[in-house]
């Protein structure tokens, strides 16, 4: 296990130990365990892919969502304000213009094979299976886009269309488009902010 949740704090082990050094804020962020049932093995078999250990370990231990209506707080969240969700900032190039995106993690992360995964995967399938958005896919196999976070309908997905470690892509339904966002899930954790 590369990540363990200890009293809502992420502890990193093995190859992941360098993440808090690269993003010191991550040691003070609040996280909840993800208790949503999931089974990623059939997805790996069907698509002939292998999920990164860091991705599965972190989301299981720290990707959970918790909301108490009486207290109005969520996880993952900032250390000093439990109602303030974490976010990831990244740049995309849209029509030759660079645009900064702030992706809020109000609902946390979810694992492949969970109910949230299948809900967003169904939306992806409905959108891309018709061939109407082949230009936006830019040669990608849409089945190898694995959603793991949702911000008001926009998605972050692991893109297994690359040969090495999957990249993180941003899919927006505002005009339907796909943009490279981060080079890896580890890079996402390094960029995590509040």
UniProtKB/TrEMBL annotation:
Pfam families: SMI1_KNR4 (PF09346)
InterPro entries for the chain: Knr4/Smi1-like_dom, Knr4/Smi1-like_sf
Domain (Knr4/Smi1-like): residue spans on this chain: 37-191
Name of this chain's protein: SMI1/KNR4 family protein
Species for this entry: Ferrimonas aestuarii
